[in-house]
What does this fold into?
Amino acid sequence: MRRKELGRDLGLSIRMLAVTVVLAGLYVGVALLIAIAVLADWDEDWRVFLLPPAFVLLLWVHYVSADRLVLGAAHANVVDTARAPELHAIVERLCGVADLPKPKIAIGRLKVPNAFAAGITHARSTIVVTTGLRDRLTKPELEAVVAHEVAHLANRDAVVMTAASAFPVAAAFFLRRRFGPYAFERDELDFEERLTFKLFSPFAWVLYIVGFLLTVTISRYREYAADRGAAMLTGAPEQLMSALQKLSDETDRIPSRDLRALTGLNAFFIVPAATHSARFTVLRDHPPLEKRLRRLAAISRELGKAAA
Amino acid sequence: MGFTDVLFGRKKLKGPAQERMFALSTARVTLDAELGLKSAGTGGVVFKPLSAGEFVRAENDLQQVLDAVAGEYGSRLERKSDDFGYEWIVVHDADVEDQVTTVHAVAQGLEEGGFGEQLLAAAFKFEPKFGDGQVVYWIYGFKRGAFWPFVPKGDKDRDNAEELELKAKLENELPIEQDLSRWFGLFNAPL
It folds into this structure.
């Protein structure tokens, strides 16, 4: 007997695909603009050729240092089996079910109850759990939260999010360099060229904003996907629901001053640490709790049912 | 892993690879002759159950599977659960070959019953023929279709040297998982 695929949601799949296509389109567009800019400038200034390698270098630095940066920001240390045997056992088994190599495990000395997964490749990946999380959740709830992070690793969300969020930065960087204030300082521009630049400068900002909105949208979709993954791995969506409920309560109760220091990590956290007003849902990188709970409830109704 | 998995997130877990488990039946000779290990009489399948509540039907399916296997193979089957919320189907049989056949049948039954994706591993317990050395488990990862050794030392340590020696000695006879980061242990296995 075949069991149902979990969390089938055609609408969500279509929206994810649409957002990805738009983002990919923007990438190609910006790459073309950069290529045109580089080709147009090269006889004036050979240094433009340094830009593409510089960007690659930047990405590489990000690749080798991102996980350490993230660990540092969460005051997290990698722990071995002897120091956290239970956590190791939970992760090992979930990775066994998910068919993933075992990631490193780190414990963050933070009272904020939260967890996140970092690392671009499976070999460098780390799952971080804060002490606050370990203290507040029951064992099945902790397992559910860890399963959510394992699902992030399985879905390669660090890569997807890095690729997605590199876009706004790259777009702004290149377009402002080419068409921004710096370009206006050149004396030899004629009227027509100045006009083109005037038109392109706000365009760079529009691209940046669109890129940012796409990034947080993708991030929200990835959260739903990771919730579904956690439900598949543990077979117990109700444990994740109860954990999410607890975590969001706890996060809200903690003064926001301490939390603001954490906002940079948000995209990786299981619940966002900083509180936003509900009006700005479109700007948030995590979906609202009620929506996540509703989807998990739908999954729990599907669990164990045979495929039609 | 496919491109769509990355794009949309995985919707299904990988299914089990069952057949290579039988290699243990032939490897038992080497285990016995060269390493002085004999079966401790138990083997088992560990899987992640769907949680209680709305899953009564899945539960009935499972019981049917177990009754069918027990009837056909004549081994004693036992259901246990561990501290981590995993279910075990323990097979009691003195002979390794029968153990492997029955464990395989249980796993096959679970897969046909729709639990295939939840299968974590099969484990076979071995102990030294003479004296009181360490207990050795051979763990078969269903997702990988490969074995790896697990030699627990107390509640949370494992004897890596012994495990690597077992790998070296049996590499030619058993499909052994080459990626050491996938050699997860099963501490306090109810075998």
In short: The first helix of chain B runs from residue 3 to 8. The domain at 12-182 of chain B is CATH 3.30.70.1130 (Alpha-Beta Plaits).
